[in-house]
Amino acid sequence: MILKRFPPKYASPGDLQSFQLKGLRWTVSHAWNNSPFYRKRLEEARVSPDGIGTLSDLSRLPFTAAEDLRDNYPLPLLSVPPGEIVRIHSSSGTTGLRKILCYTQKDIDDWLYMFARCYELAGLSREDRVQICVGYGLWTAGAGFQLGAENFGAMTIPSGPGNLDLQCTFLQDLQTTVLCCTASMGLLMAEEVHARGIRDRIHLRKVILGAERTSEAMIATIKDLLGVEEVYDIPGLTELYGPGTGLSCRHETGIHYWADFYILEILDPETLAPVAPGEIGEMVYTTLGKEASPLIRYRSRDLTRLVEGECPCGCILPRHDKILGRSDDMVVFRGVNIYPGQADEVLSKVGGIGSEYQILLEHKGDGKDYMTVKVERASQRNDEADAALSRAIAVEMKRNLMVSCSVEIVPYGSLPRSERKTKRVFDNRRY
Q1: Shared-domain flag, residues 267 and 301
Q2: Considering only CA atoms, which of 187, 163, 164, 171 is closest in space to residue 130?
Q3: Bridge partners, 101 (sequence order)
Q4: How far apart are CA 343 and CA 368, in angstroms?
Q5: What is the pLDDT of residue 92?
Q6: What is the pLDDT of residue 115?
Q7: Confidence (pTM)
Q8: What burial letters (b/e) apply to 223-251, b meaning 16+ CB within 10 Å?
């Protein structure tokens, strides 16, 4: 894909390093001169703006983490006068304090440029009608999807999450061509369209999913029930800008990320050293032009791996794999480290099951930990093959994750659905 309306800000892959170095120098200088928080951190690390000579100097910079945002509430990382702030967004925190991020008008303009680029990469035109079924308000998603679509020039339908009756009415009456939602909401919509028998009365061409991990099984179900061929994965992190900082392409070979707006490092979450190409690690972000709340080596806790080589689509922007989970979501079961994304991958290889599952961990009276995997059978199957299906899942879990588990097959549609994010791992162990 040759991006013409919202192209990369560098001409060729060979120009990327020099472009990023210029942005890195600006960010460090901007933070040094305008943020007491960053000035202190940089001085402690014995790094000044004059010390940034090459991209390798990035490794000398201190890390930033979610705790820094909460500890410096309400306006953390602030690097501009308050009068230059035109908007704030927030994500919820686990300590009672929200992570609040500030935006200047330039930050908003950059974000909308990135988001419009997502729509262009997905092959939209100004004739498309984009139905946005994500949350609005403090959360970044609604504003990003809507203003990005308006910046792109497509008709925007800000329906918000939930209210399946309204969503289905709009799908038909407004002839929506693009659906934007969480993966869980996408599954809800797909099953509702199927249940109402209106697939032949809608005009959907594409679905853009964000906010949570997606499995191959879930994507396949959404494609089948909605009658669409193209489903795109859009990552998003409030601290970075919000959703829209990258997108998968139609070849489904990874997510192109906007390396002209930030540097992405993939590091071992324990040692914080770079992982080898293709290995899973934590995503660490450094922004290149963000004014209000710049990020310097921000630890996202999200896990992925870089995808090497050229993409068949022709886009020169680099790629990473889908988000495979979070480093702080890892569970240790009988000495084995397990990430939820690994379970997604294993279950996607087993035929005859639906897209929804639950993993339950318990500590029983004999002093041992036990794992139960609840999996929905596929919608068109009955319970006759449940025993064989259970054995197949147990074998694949053992082969790929090196853990033993019991498997319970449940009817299609019996596990919880959500319009936002669906929780699938439940650690009920008490020692």
Answers
A1: yes
A2: 171
A3: 89
A4: 21
A5: 57
A6: 97
A7: 0.81
A8: bebbebebbbbbbbbbbbbbbbbbbbbbe
Q: Which amino acid is at 142?
A: G
> What range does the domain containing 219 cover?
1-327
Q: What's the distance, Cα to Cα, between the start and end of the chain in Å?
A: 53
User: How many angstroms separate the CA atoms of 45 and 73, rounded?
Assistant: 23
| Nearest by Cα to 183 from 212, 140, 147 | 212
**CA nearest to 234, candidates 266, 211, 265, 264:** 211
DSSP run (H or E) holding 231: strand 230-234
Q: Can you tell me the distance from the alpha carbon of 74 to that of 156, in angstroms, rounded to the nearest whole number?
A: 32
Higher pLDDT, 339 or 102: 102
Which of 327, 362, 386 is the endpoint of a domain?
Answer: 327
Please report which confidence band the pLDDT of residue 334 belongs to, taking 50, 70 and 90 as the band edges: confident
Domains of the chain: total: 2
Instruction: Kindly report, residue by residue over 166-203, the tens digit of the pLDDT.
Output: 999 999 999 999 999 988 889 889 999 999 999 999 99
Q: Which of 65, 24, 68, 69 is nearest to 47 (CA)?
A: 24
Are 185 and 65 in the same domain?
Answer: yes
What average pLDDT does this structure show over 89-101? 73
